[in-house]
Amino acid sequence: MKILFDTNVILDVLIEREPFVTAAVALFSLVETRKIQGYLGATTLTTLDYLLTKTNGCNSAKASIKALLQLFEVCPVDSTVLIQAVESNFSDFEDAVLYFAGENMGVDGLVTRNIEDFSLARYTVYLPNQLLDRLEMKIEK
User: Fold this and answer.
1) Are 48 and 68 in contact (CB under 8 A)?
2) Could you tell me the end-to-end alpha-carbon distance of the chain, in angstroms, rounded to an integer?
3) Which of 10, 14, 38, 89, CA to CA, is 20 to 30 A from 125?
4) Architecture of the domain whose range is 2-134
5) Domain extents for the chain?
6) Cα dist. 14→24, 99, 121, 122, 124 in Å?
């Protein structure tokens, strides 16, 4: 199963945001063990670099990005994706770019904590716990 990860789920792991980190770490584990194929949008990586550099410094941000690139595949963002996003009815351009990058890569679903932002999606959008349930992974509360 090819799953596109929204920026918020990645940040949950990288900055250990409670109470969301447990589910996000469980999803990372599924990517690490190749039970799912994890994908990131190219713009997710630039956003993460910006946010992590501000909070943790440049070296730490670069180390995090490098680790993510070893774990996840990247959905490219090109003019086709940008045109699809700008011509879509998504209310948020950044979400539309991520969504169409995933669609063009042929992902099976997207995992996010902001499911309402992807109400126009034509492929399945999951909350982290919903995806874990779908994959029959139980996490300790």
Assistant:
1) yes
2) 25
3) 14
4) 3-Layer(aba) Sandwich (3.40)
5) 2-134
6) 10, 22, 26, 29, 25
Residue 141 burial (CB count, 10 A): 7
Give the model confidence (pLDDT) of 58-108 as tens digits. Answer: 999 999 999 999 999 999 999 999 999 999 999 999 999 999 999 999 999
Q: Which residues pair with 4 in a beta bridge?
A: 39, 110
Q: List the alpha helices (DSSP H) in 15-71.
A: 21-32, 42-56, 58-71
Q: What is the distance, to the nearest Å, from the Cα of residue 117 to the centroid of all Cα atoms in its chain? A: 13
Q: Which residues pair with 125 in a beta bridge?
A: 110
pLDDT at 141: 43
Q: Which amino acid is at 44?
A: T
